[in-house]
Design goal:
This protein is mainly alpha-helical. It contains ten helices and no strands.
């Protein structure tokens, strides 16, 4: 819409300039024709003769000046149209940004609820001691909260780069978490024991907790509140686990898992120590 307004403005400006030039040329030509038809000797008018000589001598310059004046008016008209279109576009973007921010808390709530449900699904398979239950044949990964994608896309389109990056990080991790959970359930269902190891369940729980933490980080912005600078990544993960009902989050496994999330080199070292000899 803004582009069409700009095009209409530029066309109007061009028409104005062409009309001004044409009017000036017609005026000059008309005067010249008039003076040619009326002999100056009969009129005995030195002034008219001087005007005629001036027009004959400087008609090209006058046409050029007229073209310059018309060009100036055209440029001013086009600049006004450009400014108007730019302001209209900014206003439209502000409206879209406000609309996206209004519904953003709902989208974030859906993501955090999905995260909590995933944690609760996996929590029985990560007991503090012993083995968890076997995987039921009807256990399926939770479906993605597809209703959030339009809202998140609109937020990424209308907000600044920092918010767009945060939205991209949430969507990217959502895809990773869901894909990992799908693969885990598929692999366990193919095992003869039908059991998820405690470490596998804990890693999957932390995947969901990290998704919760990433989403919770955007809530202050979505609600027009001050961001929570004092709450670190570890605290956000622990909060997700507590909200999901895992009260004993300070037991030895979870702090270690959280440390590995913050320092991936610990994961590499752990995998090497657990690898079979000769691998």
């Amino acid at each position: 819409m803004a582009l069409s307004r700009l095009n209409r403005g530029s066309q109007s400006g061009r028409r104005l300039g062409i009309s001004a030039i044409a009017l000036l040329m017609v005026t000059v030509r008309s005067l010249l024709c008039l003076f040619r038809r009326e002999p100056f000797a009969a009129k005995n008018s030195i002034m008219l003769h001087q005007i005629y000589e001036f027009l004959c001598q400087w008609q090209t310059l006058l046409a050029g000046i007229g073209a310059l004046v018309a060009a100036v008016f055209t440029i001013r008209k086009m600049q006004a149209q450009i400014n108007q279109a730019a302001e209209f576009q900014k206003d439209q973007l502000r409206r879209e940004s406000r609309a996206a921010r209004i519904v953003l808390p709902l989208a974030l709530s859906e993501i955090t609820e999905y995260s909590i449900k995933c944690i609760k699904l996996l929590e029985p398979y990560a007991p503090a001691k012993g083995d968890g239950p076997t995987l039921s044949s009807d256990t399926k990964p939770l479906p993605l909260p597809n209703s959030i994608f339009d809202t998140m896309k609109e937020v990424a389109r209308t907000e600044d780069a920092a918010i767009a990056d945060s939205v991209g990080e949430i969507i990217s991790w959502l895809q990773i978490q869901h894909s990992r959970l799908e693969n885990l359930i598929r692999l366990v269902s193919e095992r003869s024991t039908k059991r998820i190891s405690r470490h596998e369940a804990q890693d999957a729980i932390l995947d969901a907790a990290e998704l919760y933490a990433l989403s919770a980080r955007l809530f202050p912005y979505a609600r027009s509140l001050q961001p929570e600078h004092n709450e670190d990544f570890r605290t956000k993960l622990k909060n997700a686990l507590i909200i999901a009902g895992i009260v004993d989050v300070d037991r030895s496994e979870f702090p270690e898992l959280i440390d590995r999330r913050q320092n991936p080199s610990l994961t590499v070292a752990r995998n090497k120590s657990n690898a079979p000899p000769g691998s």
